[in-house]
Amino acid sequence: MIDIVLMKIKSELLLLIEKALLTPVEVKYCSQTIYETLLGCLRLWDSTKDIKWKDRATHVCNILLSIQRPDGGFDIGYDFNFGRLHRKGQSTSPELVSLVAIVEYYKRFQGDDVKKAAELASNWIRNNSIKISDEKWAIPYAPYSTKEIMVYNGTSFAAGAIGVYISVFPDAELEIIYHGMINYLYGVLSNIPNQPGKFWYYSDQKRIDLSVIQKDKVDYYHQMQQVEMHSMAETCVNSPLQSKLISFASEHVAYMQNNDGIIPYLNVNMDIHLWGICSCASGFILAGKVLKNKREEYNARAEKILDWIVTYSWNGDYFYPIVSEKGLVINKDFYVRSDAWVFNSFALAVKEKINDEKYILICEKSYCKMESVNFSGIENHASNVRIRTVNRILLYFANIKNKIWRK
Prior knowledge:
- This protein is mainly α.
- 58% of the residues lie in helices and 6% in strands.
- The chain is built from 15 helices and nine strands.
- It has helices at 2-21, 31-48, 51-66, 97-109, 112-128, 153-166, 172-187, 212-215, 220-234, 242-256, 274-290, 295-312, 336-351, 356-372, 385-406; strands at residues 25-27, 80-81, 85-86, 130-133, 136-138, 272-273, 322-323, 329-331, 377-379.
- Strands 6-7-8 form a three-stranded antiparallel sheet.
- α6 (153-166) packs parallel to α9 (220-234), α9 (220-234) packs antiparallel against α10 (242-256) and α13 (336-351) packs antiparallel against α14 (356-372).
- The longest helix has 22 residues, at 385-406.
- It is globular, with a radius of gyration of 21 Å.
- The two termini are 28 Å apart.
């Protein structure tokens, strides 16, 4: 009996030590937190014309300009592994939503410093884009880590940013790249017989460094973020294949949505991550603005998602970042980056008059919570030397345990 108690104490102690060693990294001004908050503020300004949302947008825009990298790009603000190690401080293509937010601010309020920042970011795209063929262009996810096209979604973020940018600042060279990126992305869509629509595998299917599971990975949340970017771009600058691309990608994710409104994160079982499920709502709303015949259906799909979020994730102060499909809270921590994504989705719903009276109160409380921590906080996606070292040690002992068990 004493041995069992001691083993239990030892096990709990090891878990506490492991948890302490793997404490999430503190991140100041993650670019995703800032650009999502800025877009949300702009959308709430559009719908309310309340000066506080203009002032808040200006404050957040100034933060975004302050974290722009010297090369004109934007960095998420921490190390992480995307198949290669991304180092903090190095610009990546997914962070080009920053350029969208900057241009959207400029369209409403102007500003020479804002214009200059947009020009610098557009040049980052120009300098890092790769010509695949005469009619196709792409961009690496993290050009300073590898020039390979590791994943597809970075090109969608770049294309979306270009479309919004050239609608305000015409640029013949970038327009060629814009259409070339859409041609490329359309060409790498995949499908499954008897399932509607099409999808992107998360990773470039030409890669030979992946396991079967890694190669077959489909990320529905990122797919709808891609739909969101392509839809914003298409409303600014038409591209011949873009509406078809939006339709295919949206219809496949719509097929994956269940009666409760839930869409899985991946094509394998995982809990619901709020930054991602809310992106599906945003994607549907914006796709509906491009695909007019789908607008009513897609707005209803989005509202189902947002109402599920209110029911199972909103605690009156912030959104729980990870929840099971059945609504059980998996993680109660406050992740400001996650909240920024959700805030922006609710702000878009307010702008499009989807349950706007209810949602605007949530937006107000959500913004105040993020502002109270200066738009900074812990990040479970972030890596550093401590976390990487601990994970290597844990993996080493797990492998030893498995070898012993097999004997």
